[in-house]
TrEMBL record:
This is DUF624 domain-containing protein. Keywords: Membrane, Transmembrane, Transmembrane helix. The keyword Protease does not apply. Pfam families: DUF624. InterPro entries: DUF624. The chain crosses the membrane at residues 21-51, 57-81, 102-126, 138-164, 184-203, 209-232. The keyword Transport does not apply.
Length: 235
């Protein structure tokens, strides 16, 4: 019986598909940041021109109504990245997703902005009349929690609109509320990442918007997509 000695195989290094996948991510992130800036041009321009955006928060909150449809666009680009890999065309995917989901995403964004404006005004009134309003110490944390849930629910619902374009708005909102509460740790992570994006955009509008949003939004999209698919598998 003769024994055949097999030579150990050498690692040939990363293949073409690996480099293509890396390029797809980089291209999608760079294009996504540019498209987000263009889709929210009034907000970006005002952030760059106004020295203290916090002092004019109602104005900037109203301008942020354009964010929701652009989130639908970037989420659609991320979905195409997952499906197509290195062959992804992020600009075309963004535009398709923006157009397809505009009505639902814009409605979600307008509702969220209206709710946050209402909560922000209430919070400002409570803080300025903390000594005279009974229970102000309890109402302030409650308002903050409701605002956080509003943001988390809206972003999750926008992801649901992209993932389930045929589903009704009522079904998406119910599923999003369920996910936001059941997987609270993902909602908390989402709020932290969104806070980083907002802080970067406010402190350094040009660099912050050019570099920060897409990679962090990709993490948010991945978590939301995982949560929706987990619910669908268990249904």
């Amino acid at each position: 019986m003769s024994s055949v000695s097999a030579k150990p195989r050498r690692w040939a290094g990363p293949g073409f598909e690996t480099f293509g996948s890396i390029f797809g991510f980089i291209y999608t992130f760079l294009a996504g940041n540019v498209l987000l800036a263009v889709a929210n041009a009034p907000l970006v321009l005002c952030l760059a021109l106004v020295a203290d955006p916090a002092a004019a928060w109602p104005f900037f909150l109203a301008l942020s109504v354009t964010i929701a449809p652009s989130l639908a666009g970037i989420f659609a680009a991320f979905r195409a990245l997952n499906d197509d890999g290195g062959a992804v065309k992020p600009v075309a995917a963004f535009l398709r997703g923006y157009k397809r989901s505009f009505a639902k995403a814009a409605l979600l964004g307008a509702g969220a902005v209206a709710m946050l404006l209402f909560l922000g005004v209430d919070l400002a009134v409570l803080q300025s009349n903390a000594q005279t309003v009974p229970g102000a110490a309890l109402l302030v944390p409650l308002i903050v929690v409701v605002a956080a849930v509003t943001v988390s629910l809206t972003v999750t619902a926008i992801a649901g609109v992209v993932l389930l374009p045929e589903a009704s708005m009522k079904s998406i909102l119910k599923a999003s509320l369920f996910l936001a509460v059941q997987r609270w740790y993902l909602s908390l992570a989402m709020l932290v990442l969104l806070g980083i994006i907002v802080s970067a955009a406010v402190m350094q509008p040009v660099l912050g918007i050019a570099l920060a949003p897409a990679p962090l939004l990709f993490v948010i999209w991945s978590n939301a997509s995982y949560a929706f698919h987990a619910v669908l598998r268990s249904a």
